[in-house]
Amino acid sequence: MTVNGSGLLDLVCGPAGPLPETYQRYRLVAHLGSGGQADVYRAVRLCGGVSSAPLTVKVFRVDPRRPVVDELRSWDKGDAVLMDLNNRGVQAICRRADGFYGPPPHRPGEPPDVGDAVPYQVYDYLHGVNLREYVCDRAGLAPGARRLNAVDALATLAGVLRALHHPTEPGATPVLHMDVKPSNVMVLATGEVKLIDFTGARYWRPEEITQIAYTPESGGPEAFGGASQVGPAYDVHGFGAVAYFLVTGDYPRESGQQRAAGEESPPAWSVLRRHPALERRPALRDHLHEILADRPGDRPSTHELPAWVERLTELVHQAGIPDAGVDWGEPETARVVGRARPRPPVAGTETEAFQRIEKLERELVELRAALGTPDELRARDEIRGRATAAANGFTPGPGATRLASDGRAGATRLAPDGRSGALEGPTGEQRRVAPDRPVSAAPVSPAGAAPTAVSPAAMAMSPGSAAGSPGSAAGSPAGPGGAAAASPASAHIQGRAAVPPPKRVDPSQSVLAPAQEAAPWPQRPREEPGTWKRGWELSGIGAFFAFICWGIWAASARGRLAGPLMAFGLVLLVAAGVFAVVRLLGRVVLVNRLGRVRRGARGAHTITGAFLIVAGIAYLQQTPWVMQVYRWVTGTS
């Protein structure tokens, strides 16, 4: 039986704990996929022989090119961010259910590897497929199929990024997802989308961003500039990559090595793709390239994404782009108001098939848990046979189960030849692996294998196992199947912390580009010369209005013009100061803080023009005959 091209699994995993059943807390039933840092499985949680609803278990892999302690700290940062976002109530993201360190996945009834513990994360299982699979499988092109609404999907992602970058909770720290791309967007059967994979997510603080997740096809080039250059615009670039994929069915960037001969040497990052469908539609191409600009300051801000999506929808309708299998019509959230009838699932999600498969998987897990593996059955039959022989007066052979005579709690181990071995207690070298302690890649080998459950009847019939005697079965904890549980000592993992020296990694060949080795990036965007002149007509209109009003006031004064001229010059000087102060504030906020590039000075000219208009009105208020006309027109005394 296969699921999504993968055969059903029979693996268990769990945290390192004092109870033997914790090693088998989760049963992995299907492999969902693998990434650069982890393997992902569908699983169920076992408790007292009862299996839960499906869950997603992510098993992280340690990169041998980086120190183990750095890898574990990196995983912990992403885990902390996801827990915080779940507590904040951020919608349309994956939900974290559990997290722990434990031995690698292993078959039931077999001892787990005694090497380093690996990190695990457990999430709610999402019924659906990721956006990359949905578009590549062309599920929405089937006749009569219900399609994913692209406008709804982009609006949802824009809302998620706004909640991450601009949290409303007092004192909440902004968060960067760091790896927004089509394969990290899940399409659910209901037509909703959710953002997943927060492994690389970080709080937006320099001390938190020590490595940067970079996917060449969808990542922004500022990843090569170090942590100081990465900000909300990095996630906005990923958002643009998702929009580009929905429009064209392709990723927006391709390797710079594909540039034509004779052009400049390609940069370390990937360059924008020249898509043939977009080259024939310049307006749509320029709009998509705006959000994918190499410079972070040239991209729209997170708050501007809804307006950008609205404009994108208009351009897609006007351009007549080839159908990629998504719906660019009116958002479904606006169409289903007042509709009580449930809608069919989105094509390609196969919700009913998944539910039938998950039901079979749960039944298979419960059946295996009840019967045990073939090795467990053979061991059980052997112990049951020896117990029957002892009850009939036969002396047990040398392979019979023995209890420790020093009264310490022990663990029954099977000898290499399959016979039951002696019980041994914990040694002074055994240590428990704490979640915040890294372990060595070359741990000390234990004295024996992992525990195996022993029948209480066999323990009771063995010599020296009378109730109340030291180490008797009556004092041992019971496992989930009623068998005597193994010792907590066997649940400990042996190891010694050893951090190798840091190794240099080529950022152009690694998905994770270390910030400290990145190429320099300009500290702040440069403005084009003469940008302060753009928008001068606004302040010019205000100056002209103020001059006319001043002229009316000066003519009515019937005196010398020296005083009025000095007064008008002072007004112009103050207006110049207002312009300079507004430009300075814009540079501090927009350029230095937000990394935006100012292409003009319309804002500063608008404020300056408004000031001059107010000054002109003040001149008119000081002109007696103008005020008399105003009162006569308005009927006020």
UniProtKB/TrEMBL annotation:
Keywords: ATP-binding, Kinase, Membrane, Nucleotide-binding, Serine/threonine-protein kinase, Transferase, Transmembrane, Transmembrane helix
EC number: 2.7.11.1
Matching SUPFAM superfamilies: Protein kinase-like (PK-like) (SSF56112)
Entries under PROSITE patterns matching the protein: PROTEIN_KINASE_DOM (PS50011), PROTEIN_KINASE_ST (PS00108)
Transmembrane residue ranges: 536-555, 561-582, 603-621
Signal peptide: none
Record flagged with keyword Zinc: no
Record-linked InterPro entries: Kinase-like_dom_sf, Prot_kinase_dom, Ser/Thr_kinase_AS
Keyword Transferase: yes
Region described as Disordered: spans on this chain: 388-532
Sequence ranges assigned to domain Protein kinase in this UniProt record: 26-309
EC top class, as a word: transferase
Residue ranges with Low complexity bias: 438-491
Coiled coil spans: none
Designated name of the protein: non-specific serine/threonine protein kinase
